[in-house]
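Submission sheet (multi-component)
Chains listed below:
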Amino acid sequence: MDITLEGIVIIVGDFGSGKTEVAINLAVYRRQAGCDVRIADLDLVNPYFRTREARRQLTGCGIGVAIPPEKYLQADLPILIPEIGGLIRQPAQLTILDVGGGEAGATVLAALYDALRHHEVTMLQVINPFRPYTSTVEGCRKVQRRIEAAAKAPITGFIGNANLMEETTVEDIYSGHDFVRRLADESGLSLAFITADVRLRPRIDAGRLSCPLLPITRQLVPPWKKAAAFGASAPRGARLQTGGV
Amino acid sequence: MSKILMKGNEAIGEAAIRAGCLNYFAYPITPQSEVAEYLSRRMPEVGGVFLQGESEVAVSYMIFGAAACGERVFTTSSSPGISLMSEGISYIAGAQCPAVFVNIMRGGPGLGGILPSQADYLQATKGIGHGDFRMLVLAPASVQEAVEMVMMAFPLAEKYRNPVMILGDGLIGQMMEPVEFHDDLKVAPSNKDDWATNGMDTRGSDRRNLVKSLYLDPEELNAHNLHLKAKYEQMAREDVRYEAYNTDGDYEALIVSYGTMSRVCRTAIDMLKQEGVEVGMIRPQTVFPYPETAVREAAEKKSCKKVFAIEMNMGQMLEDVQRAVCGLRPVEWFGKCGGEVPTPEEVIDVVRPA
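Outcome: structure written.
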């Protein structure tokens, strides 16, 4: 099983579910597979730790990045740049829209409704069951309904992003996978993939999982830690092998 | 209880609830607005109240009113908002009411910027408002510590009948870390029947309690100020908190740093250790009362040649470090403003012995 997402992929989820880290790593993963990738920072609600913080790593990988102009990067203003409309009208092979948290963050999608309605879009909800309010299936469904109402568009699948940052164990990855699998089955929606820190990946039994696994090389780190470099030179098969039976 | 992943601002809100505080009044401002976001959802679930004031000035008097009635109450804001609250904080300190104020600092002066900063150190520790008063000020360095300090802040505020401030920089509010809540930190209010206007029937008393900061008689006002002074001296005796890092053996230099800046320094100290260079650190957890004895004793170590105050401002705690070190060692400052947090490499360049 591999992640073969193409077209317009919108990443949504509750506050702090890990949307941006997932979006950045998904962009790089697909780029390394030879896909033409563009990513847009549509986070109008968070002041820190946004896609724009990883712009140099992304452009360095050959990924097109649509973010507000440099002089407004650190403003807490809800800036929706006009390039987004063009990005949707003429999408790349994979166009990722990283949306801000919860229904407040998803409201921006309703503003893009006219541009989006001509396309088939994949809208994926990121789930971290170690976050408040999304530790139960019912909690996740409630967030789903709120986001759908704000975005005026349906969520089409889930991304399992179970983690406690550096304290995440392999057991947490398995239980997180089982949780989001149950959520997907009960909702009748797809489970696109789950994530795990690249350092945990060698210890994860692929046969234990029912979906692909996206390795995460954490980019949004506090100043006393270093963001690890994406292993661009590693042979793709060896580094990015995904789970499955 | 098992750990969950929380943004600092959410964890601060949850910690207040776990401490038994069900009254939250606030006005949104970056980078702390998620506290209000979180509590607007969470307070109704636990039967608490979140009321958004029409301004921070209004909020500070909502706090005063609730605190005067003996209710556990807190607010959160960021630098410009805290300035607006300073009048109310002075009244609260003058009237000896317990309340908790959280300042998730951003860069200044004026509107400044929204990125992390420690620019309000002097304001918090020396004189947040008019009149002659101090607050007990706790400076967390992690989300977990912010949780614990919020839970400790309420009993401390009640012990001293005085405002307590949590002084965190923007990163404390915005970063996400795994946290757990220790319910044993929840301590019941102890003394409010002695002073609060919580109703004579409620406390079964025939004595009225009066809460005020007005003292027109000069002798009475002097006595009141002497009483407040005695409280601050008691804080210095009983509630100084700090953490020492890499100070057991010899070290060539001593860093004094607090909040998330101290975590950058800790990384720098670990990196220097690998080069065979030893540097120690004192991290004040209370910045008022200041751990001056700990700083002086660590600076006095024979191997220590120099002391560095490292902070995200232009040298505010520096004055406290100089006061503590008393000229026994040279004291230098390093820091940055504007939201760019110094990197471990920059700290190393500054503290590495020549």
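Remark: Chain A has one domain: 7-239.
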